[in-house]
Amino acid sequence: MTPTMGIPCVSFVPLGILYENRYFISDECLTCLTEINARINCEDPITRPLRRTLIFFDVLHKDLFPILIHIKKNPRIFRSTIKLLVWMTIPVSCLISAQQEKSRQSSSANINFMKNEFTQFLYNAKETFLYLKITRIVLEHLNSLTLNQPLISKDDCELVSYLLLLIRNILHAPERPTSKNTDYDGDCGNTSDYPQQRQLLGVLFAQGFGQILIHLLSCSQKVILFDKNL
C-alpha cells in the first residue's frame, strides 16, 4: 500500500471490489488492513487524516461490511476487519477531547467540522448494523468462538474481545436525530424515543447475545476476554 503524505492510499490500492453481489479481495487486502490498523492509532490527533480519508472514501460500505459478509471464512482478514471497525466506531468524545477543543492549534470551525464528520459516520454505522445479515455474522462468530469451547485460543480471545468492543461501540453510537430525539445527548440508556437503539437491542438478544454474555461472564478466561480497553 503506497502512502501519500503518510496516509495509506486506499483509493489506489483497494481492499477489494464488489462485483455481481460478490466481494473479491485484492492480493494486498490483509497487508492493507494491517497497515491501516497500525497507522490509525498513531495518526495526528489534531487532524485525524487517516480516519477522515477512510470516511471520505466510504470504506465502511464499500469494503469493510462486504468483507464481513463475503470473506468471513478467512480468519486473519476477518479479524483485521473487525479490529478496524472497532477503531473506526470509537465515540467522538474519545477522538476530540475537551483539552483539544481549547487548544490554539485547532480552530473551533475545524473542530466542529470534524465532529460532524465523525458523528455522521457513526449514524451510518449504527444504521448499517440494523441489517440482520451484519449482526448475524458478528453473533455467529461470537457463538462459534465461545459456546461449546472448553478453552479459547489466544487469537480467538482477541477476536472475541474486539467483537464485544464493536457491539459496545455500535450501541453507544448516536442515533440520527428525528423529531422525537433531537435532544439526543449520546446516552443510550433510555431507548423509549430511539427506535433504532430499541431495534438493535432486540435484534442482538433475539439472536442469542444474552446467552453469549452469560457464558462469557462464567468463563474461566473472562479476564482475558474483557481486557481490551479503548
UniProtKB/TrEMBL annotation:
Listed GO biological process terms: DNA repair; DNA replication checkpoint signaling; entrainment of circadian clock; replication fork arrest
Coiled-coil zones: none
Superkingdom: Eukaryota
Signal peptide range in chain numbering: none
Subcellular location: Nucleus
Keyword Methyltransferase: no
Domain Timeless N-terminal: 22-222
Keywords tagged on the record: Nucleus
Chief localisation class: nucleus
InterPro entries reported for this sequence: Timeless, Timeless_N
Protein's UniProt name: Timeless N-terminal domain-containing protein
Origin species: Daphnia galeata
